[in-house]
Hints:
By secondary structure, this protein is of the alpha/beta class. 45% of the residues lie in helices and 13% in strands. It has four domains: 36-44 and 202-462, TIM Barrel (Alpha-Beta Barrel); 70-182, no CATH class; 537-553 and 564-669 and 687-799 and 1018-1024, 3-Layer(aba) Sandwich (Aldehyde Dehydrogenase, Chain A, domain 1), CATH 3.40.605.10; 805-1010, Aldehyde Dehydrogenase, Chain A, domain 2, CATH 3.40.309.10.
Amino acid sequence: xxQHQELNTTSPAMTPLxxxxxxxxxxxxxxxxxxxxxxxxxxxxQNQRIEAxxxxxxxxxxxxxxxxxxxxxxxxxxxxSSEEGVVLMCxxxxxxxxxxxxxxxxxxxxxxxTGDWEEHIGQSNSLFVNASTWALMLTGRFVHLGDFNNLTxxxxxxxxIGRLGEPVIRTxxxxxxxILGHQFVMGQTIEEALKRxxxxxxxxxxxxxxxxxxxxxxxxxxxxQAYFTAIEAIGRGAEGGGPRKEHGISIKLSALHPRxxxxxxxxxxxxxxxxxxxxxxxxxxxxIGITIDSEESDRLELTLELFEQIARSPGLSGWNGLxxxxxxYQKRAPAVIDWLAGLARETRHQFMVRLVKGxxxxxxxxxxxxxxxxxYPVFTRKVATDVSYIACARRLLITPQCFYPQFATHNAHTxxxxxxxxxGQPFEYQRLHGMGEVLYxxxxxIDLPPSPCRVYAPVGNHADLLAYxxxxxxxxxxxxxxxxxxxxxxxxxxxxxxNPTHKLRHCSPxxxxxxxxxxxxxxxxxxxxxxxxxxxxxxSAPLLASIERELKPAPPKEEGSRSPAEVEIVNPAHLEQxxxxxxxxxxxxxxxxxxxxxxxFSEWSxxxxxxxxxxxxxxxxxxxxxxxxxxxxxxxxxxxxIPDALAEVREAVDFCRYYAARCRHxxxxxxxxxxxxxxxxQLTLHGRGPFAAISPWNFPLAIFTGQVAAALAAGNTLLAKxxxxxxxxxxxxxxxxxxxxxxxxxxxxxxxxxxxxxxxLVNDPRIAGVAFTGSNQTASLINRSLAARPGPIVxxxxxxxxxxxxxxxxxxLPEQVVRDAIDSAFFSAGQRCSALRVLFLxxxxxxxxxxxxxxxxxxxxxxxxxxxxxDIGPIIDRPSVExxxxxxxxxEAEGKLHYFSPLGDGCDGGTFFAPxxxxxxxxxxxxxxxxxxxxxxxxxxxxxxxxxVEAINGTGYGLTAGVHSRVDSTIKxxxxxxxxxxxxxxxxxxxxTVGVQPFGGEGLSGTGPKAGGPHYLHRFATExxxxxxxxxxxGNTTLVTLEDETSAPQD
Length: 1051
């Protein structure tokens, strides 16, 4: 790579751009819509001209409906509201990447058997749609039709599916998918795409090299070389017209680096900037333009920083071929345009700006809800995005010296608005390959000479269609989209071209009423735990500063002033650092604490359920207020990386609020039962007495809080023994419970060793129940101790570990599998009871997945958990590291070590263990749970899925399991066959959310009921039934006062 100017990698936290983008992203949606409405509102005469043009365009397209081809015809015929539309998407997404016939046949059988294909044959005038439909059903060129001559199409498809063992059927459907792929993709290589584009004289393209985000360094280098190759190939055909007159290329930044995410900012600026500058210089020399594509909102600021580095490169000064895409559905879009204008003036550029509406809307909504943000980064109403597009267009057009606008749209009203606003200024339209051709033909018939229209043209293998295909279908195939509605004759034209500013003004509220803010996700029952957007430097900077302050070690104690029972708690990442000290509880103190707890039980258990619930909710509020302190403790005491520490606090908050809600629901009113007249039968729930809670170190706040909140909600007093490695965060949590109004004698903290303090608690016959989370061996010991005690049989609520497996067949997307396997097996240093331990890979694709998995492991950052860039922190203590090391040596001797991640600088001072990837022959090699970042891979044959189920069940554990597959029958077989408490499909298998994914296993993995579920509190309670004879005081008044029904007279 060439030499470049020194990079600016200083923290962006205090830049004006960061402040403005952060504020706008968090802005109330009503205020944000007011701003865009004021900018997008046009005069009456302008609106009349716009509506006239839009009406003319739609009428012309409807008249020429038979001319529609490609994706336009497909989306009209197969909307996403139809089962067949979903089938087409599933097949196109997965079939072409499946290498083996067995899995391909299962996918085809599952998908084709569900649709009503007969309904669609001949309904479309598009040869492409009918060819695809017939190919999906019969494809006479490949299948002998003799057996089908006398059958209806519907009966024929059923007969056909019965013969799916024949390779010709599979060949036919694969050919149909290639027909489909051809409509979405300009060419499988840049040369093929250029050749195909040359057949349309005068049409310019912006080529997009299809592919997923890079998972490995090798992926990134592959995409980088593909971009250089494309630039060179496009440049060879350039005629010297400059970027506006030549084909260009679109660049996806996440394809050029395997860790394109905010926590890796400094690394990205150092590693990715030189490559981007080299690409820009190559494009400049070739005489073409490049456009940086838009991606998810949490990557926006990174994208702008990298764009700025390119723009400020001395060798590119004054070049007008540098472009960027802006998404109008983002509330920050107008501010981004203003910032770009300032950058253009400073650097003497005229940027090409592709204005799009945005293609990640659904995932942006979901992510904000999962993170518990206070806002959505995007508008929740589609009409607001349309209005924002107009406002952004006007901003682009008022600074023509800064921008060459590129308006990408398939909406007739938007097109007509752009046409009205441009007033002879230089600009171009853009459309997607395979879409909008008829619409733009009609526009060109109005405007002579026509304005230029560039085609956004995907290039790549049909097997790489997934991300692009799904985004395009979701964006343009939904029933609410203009593309889907333009040919619907049942919809009046005036309705689909209605002025979006008028529509938005009449929307009340301005946000979508069916999309609650993330904090209101659970409605009236409870608030969602508040999160922090760690990709927003204005929000994350105060948290990072707080953690840095908290990192100061506890002051040393003077010689002789320390109690013999006092122990030091050290930071597992820096063993020389003492986090704090705590006094352990003696056996005598345990007995005294039980005395106190028993004495407090009667009064506490009689407190109204509503009062107990309010105290738990107050505790949740206090935890949110003290989140910086709690996160800092989780980082220093438990070695949690910052995202995990934040998630831990949120889970603790959710436990408090969820169990408060269940307390109200289950403990406030008695349950009434039907019975004989004159009798009242009720069941009520009550506390049992002093409960013991023994919590683990791997979730020292969340699980501890969950046990405490549940016991208190049910009306018990509680003696809480935290793990000996992590008592300080438990001590802080208990102080917050007390501050919220829980009497100190009702909740007592008993720090100490399990063998002394824990044993004394469990063996005390006054303890009315035990909640335990930890190893299966310890749970068994507690169970035996409780059984051996004198007195009543009491509940043991035990959550233990698992030999958690994920099964991956050949239809799964390798990039998604690798991402989810890394998350599940290695994040949190593998120290989750739900962590992935065994990955079953179908033999046909195992090598591909293993290679990608090893490459992704190479990109992991292991080190100081107090740094935001760290992915994986330390193991909790030395004995745990020793157990992992011994296991790794044993497995390496009996299996194969594929890869282990490099440890980062500074790991020598802590208890770190590198993630390891082994291949073994059988799960029988794993005699017990291995609690750390070690993943074992086992290959399996597609025809032996039943043996995989048998092997997993044979371990006796039943906590979590997952599957990655596009084959419904495979998913169903695993879901029904595996005896596990939590089963995950096509996602990671960690991070269960309270009240959403109740968590807990069966068999060796626990007793149940599930934590964070509707039945958990019941196990902490005893049930009492009351039966009242309501006639004892003088007859059954309810019965004797009944009146006869009025009936019609009989003939």
